[in-house]
Design goal:
4 domains, five-stranded mixed β-sheet, Flavocytochrome B2, Chain A, domain 1, acyl-CoA dehydrogenase activity, binds protoporphyrin IX containing FE, 17 helices, 15 strands, four-stranded mixed β-sheet, alpha+beta, Butyryl-CoA Dehydrogenase, subunit A, domain 2, Butyryl-Coa Dehydrogenase, subunit A, domain 1, Cytochrome b5 heme-binding domain-containing protein
C-alpha cells in the first residue's frame, strides 16, 4: 500500500481535493464529500488532518469495513500501524473476544467453569471468526431488506450450523459434519448453545430465525417420532440448506392454549383431508415442509396429531406477515384448504401429538433462553462501548453515576440468567432423557421468563443510554434499535411469560408430595 507523510496529506485540504487520516490510514474522500451521510462541511473541517478521534466518535466499527476501506488510498509512512479493530483478539487460555467487561460470558473472560472443555472453546473461536466475517457486517442490510439470502443459509449449512440447531441428529443424516469438525459423539447441549450464542452476537433475532428458527423446532419432531421414510425425505435436504421446514402450531385463535387448536385432519381412509389456518409461523414463507399440529380426534389435548405437510400438496398457501421486528425470519400466515395428506405423513402415533409438542417445547424454550440471554448481553456490550466514547456535559457517559447504575442492573441480571442457564443445561446433559420432561419442564419455563424479562430490561436501558441513536435505524445504535423491536418475539412465543411463570409454579406444586411443609 502507498505510504504518505503527514505533510503530504496536509496539502489535500479543500473540497476539490480532500484527504483525511483515520487510524493511520489515508482516505481520499473528495468524491465522497457530497455523499457523506454526516454532511460535507464536517469532513471539510478535518480536510488534510488526522480525524481518528472524530471518526470513532460518530461511527461504529462496521462503517470502516463497509464504507471506509474502499476509499483508502494508503497509509502514513513509518507510522506504527494500530492494532486491528478489536475482534476475536483474545486467543490464549479460555479467552475469546475483545474482552469488553461482561461483553462475553465469564468463562470466555478467563473465569473457571465446570461446564466447558477445549472442544467448546475451539467451537467458539471457529464461529467467532465465521460470524465476524460472514454475518455481522451484512446483518443490517439483510434486516432492512427483510430477507436473508439463500446463499447465506447455504454457507451456514456447509459449516454444520443447521445440523447443530436440531439437538442430537443421527450421524448418517448430517450432510456436512458439525461445526469446527467436532464429532457427533462429542457433541453436547453446551455446543448447541454456543452456536446460537455466537450467531446472536449479531444482535438480530431476525437473522437467527431466518437461518434456523423453523428448522430447530420443525425438524426435531420428525427426527424423534417420525418414520424412517419421513426422516429420510426431510432431514438431509433441510440440513443442507436446500429445503426449509417450519413448525405450525399457533392459530388465529390458539396460541399458548395449544390444546384449543382447530385445524382439522379428517380421516378419509387412505389419507387425511386437512383444513385450517396457522399464524405467526417462523420460516413458513419459504418452507417446503410443514410439521403441523392438527385435530384428528375429539376436543382437548387427546385429539391432536402431528402431520408432515408439503409445499407441493395442492391447497397449501403462505403469505408474509408484517411484524414489528424479526425481519428476515419469514413469519407467515398459512392456510390449508382441502389438502390431501397421505397417512404415511403422520408423525408418530395418531392423537399423541400433544405430548410430542410438549417434549419439543423444552428444546424450543431453551433455544429462546440461549438467544434472549445473548441478546441482553449485546445490549450490555453495546452500552458499555458507547458509554466509554460518548461525551456529555464535558464527561464520558460512563463517568455519570446514573449510567453506571443502569449498567450495574443490566449486568447483574444477565449474569444471573447465564448462571441459571448453564446449571439447567448441565441437567439436560446429565439426566436421562426420559426423566427430563418431568424434572425440567417447570425450571425451563421459569428460566424462559427470566431470560426474556432480562432481555426486555436490557433493551430498554440500552435504548435510554443510546438516546436518540436508538430511535433511528442503522448507525451506532443499529443493534439496540433492532433489539428493542424484537423483545416481544421472545416474551410471547414458545409460551408467554405469564404462562411460563404459572407453569413453573404448577410443576413445583406437583413436587410438593416429597416435601415437608
Ligand atoms: C472514511 C471516512 C468516513 C466515512 C467512510 C464515513 C461514513 C459515514 C456513514 C456511512 C455514515 C452514516 C452511518 C452512520 O450513521 O453511522 C456517517 C455518518 C456520520 N459521519 Fe461519517 N464518515 C467518515 C468520516 C467522518 C468524519 C471524519 C467525521 C467527523 C469529523 C464524520 C462525521 C459523521 C457524522 C456526524 C455522522 C452522522 C452520525 C449520526 O447520524 O449520528 N464522518 N459517516
Amino acid at each position: 500500500m502507498q505510504t504518505y507523510t503527514v505533510e503530504q496529506v496536509a496539502a489535500h485540504n479543500n473540497d476539490k481535493d480532500c484527504w483525511i487520516v483515520v487510524d493511520n490510514k489515508v482516505f481520499d474522500v473528495t468524491k465522497f464529500l457530497s455523499e457523506h451521510p454526516g454532511g460535507k462541511k464536517i469532513l471539510l473541517k478535518v480536510a488534510g488532518k488526522d480525524a481518528t478521534k472524530q471518526f470513532h466518535q460518530f461511527h461504529n466499527a462496521q462503517i470502516m469495513e463497509s464504507v471506509g476501506l474502499p476509499l483508502q488510498i494508503g497509509v502514513i509512512g513509518g507510522a506504527e500501524q494500530p492494532k486491528a479493530a478489536p475482534k476475536a483478539v483474545a486467543q490464549e487460555g479460555n479467552k475469546v473476544g475483545d474482552l469488553i467487561p461482561y461483553g462475553d460470558p465469564a468463562d470466555c473472560q478467563d473465569w473457571n467453569s465446570p461446564y466447558y472443555n477445549e472442544s467448546h472453546y475451539k467451537l467458539r473461536r471457529f464461529l467467532r471468526a465465521f460470524v465476524d466475517k460472514e454475518l455481522m457486517p451484512h446483518c443490517h442490510e439483510w434486516s432492512e431488506k427483510k430477507d436473508i439470502p439463500r446463499s447465506v443459509v447455504k454457507k451456514c449449512a456447509e459449516i454444520g450450523l443447521l445440523a447443530a440447531a436440531c439437538g442430537h441428529v443421527p450421524e448418517e443424516y448430517i450432510p456436512y459434519g458439525l461445526p469446527a469438525g467436532i464429532k457427533a459423539k462429542d457433541w453436547d447441549c453446551f455446543h448447541e448453545m454456543i452456536c446460537v450464542d455466537e450467531i446472536a452476537r449479531c444482535g438480530s433475532g431476525g437473522l437467527l430465525w431466518g437461518l434456523q428458527g423453523g428448522l430447530s423446532i420443525g425438524l426435531p419432531p420428525v427426527l424423534l417420532f417420525g418414520s424412517k421414510e419421513l426422516q429420510e425425505k426431510v432431514t438431509r435436504p433441510c440440513l443442507s440448506g436446500d429445503k426449509f421446514i417450519c413448525l405450525g402450531i399457533t392459530e388465529p385463535s390458539a396460541g399458548s392454549d395449544v390444546a384449543g387448536l382447530k385445524t382439522e385432519a379428517k380421516d378419509m381412509g387412505d389419507h387425511y383431508l386437512v383444513n385450517g389456518e396457522k399464524k405467526w409461523i417462523t420460516q413458513g414463507l419459504d418452507a417446503d415442509f410443514f410439521t403441523v399440529a392438527c385435530r384428528t380426534g375429539g376436543n382437548g389435548m387427546g385429539g391432536v396429531s402431528l402431520l408432515l405437510l408439503e409445499r407441493t400438496m395442492p391447497g397449501v398457501t403462505t403469505r408474509r406477515m408484517d411484524c414489528m421486528g424479526m425481519f428476515g425470519s419469514g413469519t407467515s400466515y398459512i392456510t390449508f384448504e382441502d389438502v390431501k395428506v397421505p397417512k404415511s405423513n403422520l408423525i408418530g402415533k395418531e392423537n399423541q401429538g400433544f405430548s410430542y409438542i410438549m417434549q419439543n417445547f423444552n428444546h424450543e424454550r431453551l433455544g429462546i433462553v440461549f438467544q434472549a440471554t445473548r441478546l441482553a448481553r449485546v445490549c450490555v456490550e453495546e452500552s458499555i462501548k458507547y458509554a466509554n466514547k460518548r461525551m456529555v456535559f464535558g464527561k464520558k457517559l460512563i463517568d455519570q453515576p446514573v449510567i453506571r447504575n443502569k449498567l450495574g442492573h443490566m449486568v447483574r441480571q444477565v449474569e444471573a440468567t447465564q448462571s441459571w442457564l448453564e446449571s439447567t443445561l448441565y441437567q439436560v446433559k446429565t439426566l436421562p432423557p426420559s426423566a427430563q420432561p418431568k424434572a425440567l419442564a417447570g425450571p425451563i419455563a421459569l428460566l424462559k421468563a427470566q431470560a426474556t424479562q432480562t432481555f426486555e430490561y436490557c433493551a430498554r436501558e440500552a435504548a435510554q443510554i443510546f438516546g436518540g441513536l436508538s430511535y433511528t435505524r442503522g448507525g451506532q445504535g443499529e443493534k439496540v434499535e433492532r433489539l428493542y423491536r424484537e423483545v416481544r418475539a421472545y416474551a410471547i412465543p414458545g409460551g408467554s411469560e405469564e404462562i411460563m411463570l404459572d407453569l413453573g409454579i404448577r410443576q413445583a406444586q406437583r413436587g410438593l408430595g416429597n416435601a415437608k411443609l
